[in-house]
Design a protein that fits this description.
Strand content: 15-25%
Structural class: alpha+beta
Number of domains: 2
Shape: globular
Mean pLDDT: 85
Number of strands: 8
Order of helices and strands: EEHHHHEEEEHEE
Number of helices: 5
Largest sheet: 4 strands, antiparallel
Helix content: 25-40%
């Protein structure tokens, strides 16, 4: 599947002790028959839409790509480790002035999980088992004031962190993300912008 639609691709398939592989797929960086550009769109749609079904519909409507909704989470999960590494190592953008308003928000909720993911998780069932696992989410975004002095969220300024760990784990993630977004940036008495690292 390419951005221009599906194409047929014939290539050698090699089977060895470590399993099968298609060298051409590796060179083209294909994953599950999707080109990197299509995989990027799938990840974007999966992140932006409230459900994978709606993500599939969005891809059909705006890109003309017929991709089953069940394929989107598979691609997202494949690229999630790369996204996690990028989030943890990306550099803080250089700022010419301090952040006007930096907003941090946090919440937690229980999400349904497979039984194997709930082993050793204390739950609210009569037998002590759990049907959900608590996930903690944080959001960091910047705000500016409009002509009337009302705060407005800056477009495309939101970044998110999440963890299945303790509240202290979320606090650490939020703090690190806030530093990258301009927290601890202030103006020195000389008028120069200074940022804590």
């Amino acid at each position: 599947m390419t951005l221009a639609g599906p194409i047929q691709l014939s290539r050698p398939y090699y089977l060895g002790p470590q399993g099968g592989r298609c060298p051409l797929d590796e060179q083209l960086r294909l994953y599950r028959q999707y080109t990197p550009a299509v995989a990027q769109l799938m990840c974007w749609a999966g992140a932006m839409d409230p459900s994978f079904e709606q993500a599939s519909q969005m891809l059909q409507r705006f890109a003309g790509l017929d991709i089953p909704n069940r394929q989107i989470p598979r691609v997202v999960q494949h690229y999630a480790p790369q996204a996690t590494v990028w989030m943890g190592h990306r550099l803080s953008p250089r700022r010419s002035r301090p952040v006007d308003i930096l907003n941090l928000q946090a919440d937690m909720t229980g999400i349904p999980m497979r039984p194997e993911e709930l082993r050793d998780v204390a739950g609210k069932q009569p037998d002590g088992s759990a049907k959900t696992r608590q996930i903690k989410l944080g959001c960091v975004f910047t705000q500016s004031t409009d002509a009337h002095g009302n705060p407005q969220r800056d477009p495309f300024s939101s970044t998110y962190v999440s963890t299945f760990g303790e509240v202290t784990d979320l606090s650490a993630l939020l703090y690190q993300e806030a530093l990258k977004r301009g927290y601890a940036c202030g103006r020195a008495r000389s008028g120069r912008t200074v940022c804590a690292r």
